[in-house]
Design brief:
mainly alpha, rod-shaped, transmembrane helix
């Protein structure tokens, strides 16, 4: 090694040493290999994914059942509205027919009673077990 101006750490020139500088440069590439995941860690990840999928499936199932209930409610409401309209129509038809009762009765020969109330014919001796030929009338 040469002594250069009081410093021994100075690098010598390649020409002074007697051999030429290299024309290529050696490079090394560091390859790092990842170690495979341990079995326990793989199982943990798999159980976590399965749990998340189960929770999502449960939520989906609950949503589907809720949708079905809402759809049934809607169908029942439409049925109720249709039946209500039919009841109104039948009520109107009933009132029209009730108005026609006296006219039809007169056509068939029925007459309205003069007195209010109704008459019941009861045999006179029904309670006593006597003669059944006698009939009395009672008014209510």
């Amino acid at each position: 090694m040469a002594y250069t101006r009081g410093n021994l750490a100075v690098k010598e020139k390649a020409d002074e040493r007697g051999y030429k500088a290299q024309r290529y440069r050696e490079t090394t590439k560091v390859v790092t290999r990842r170690a495979p995941l341990p079995v326990k860690e793989k199982l943990l990840y798999m159980v976590t994914v399965l749990f998340c999928a189960a929770v999502m499936g449960g939520l989906l199932w609950q949503n589907a059942s809720l949708y079905n209930v809402k759809r049934q409610m809607y169908n029942l409401n439409t049925d109720i509205q249709a039946i209500s309209a039919e009841i109104k129509e039948l009520t109107i038809q009933k009132e029209k027919l009730e108005e026609q009762i006296p006219q039809k009765a007169a056509e068939l020969g029925y007459v309205e009673p003069v007195d209010e109330g109704f008459m019941i014919e009861v045999p006179a001796n029904a309670k006593t077990g006597g003669n059944e030929d006698e009939i009395t009338t009672a008014r209510k």
